[in-house]
Input
Amino acid sequence: MPPQQSSHTPDPAGQVIQVSRLSLLACGLLLLGALSPALAWPAAFGWLVLLPFLAAAWVLRVRTVLDADGITARNTFSTTTIGWGALEGIRFPKRGWARAVLTDGTEVALPVVTFGRLPQLAEASGGRITDPYAAAREARIREDEERRDREGDTTGNDAPDPDAHSDGHDPEGVHAPDTGTESDSDTK
Output
């Protein structure tokens, strides 16, 4: 029997989409770059030291969380929670992050969510958001199975070729791979 859910155990269905923590390295480099003018002329450029810390705070704060209750979009200065019932769809603009279209017609930006994250969204939403990649994969698998059925793949082609090696090279080192071109020694 699995343990009961409590405030101390993570929600297994929850999915956090956030800025890569590797971005903090860029904030550190920005700090090194800001220190030079700030130390050379503190009265004029001392404020530059704040920029890397503001960038790091943004990296740590901005995220989109998907769980059983809905979507939580956490921006720089605000947090918006959207229940699954209030979500009409997801829109992917040409530039920027995805937007959640609500049943009342308004839109809410979903930080860090891009079209490439759609399979992750579909999985975390429990099917409420569809994954076009999955439909294409399933259609391709069905086509392959139908083609095999039509061709009557009973010739035994599934047996491995005894001359083929799984790692792509000849263990004895005797036979060179055929490159399709003739060498100088072959033409003489």
Observations:
- The chain has a mean pLDDT of 82.
- Strands lie at 15-18, 63-66, 70-74, 79-83, 87-91, 99-102, 107-109.
- The chain has six helices and seven strands.
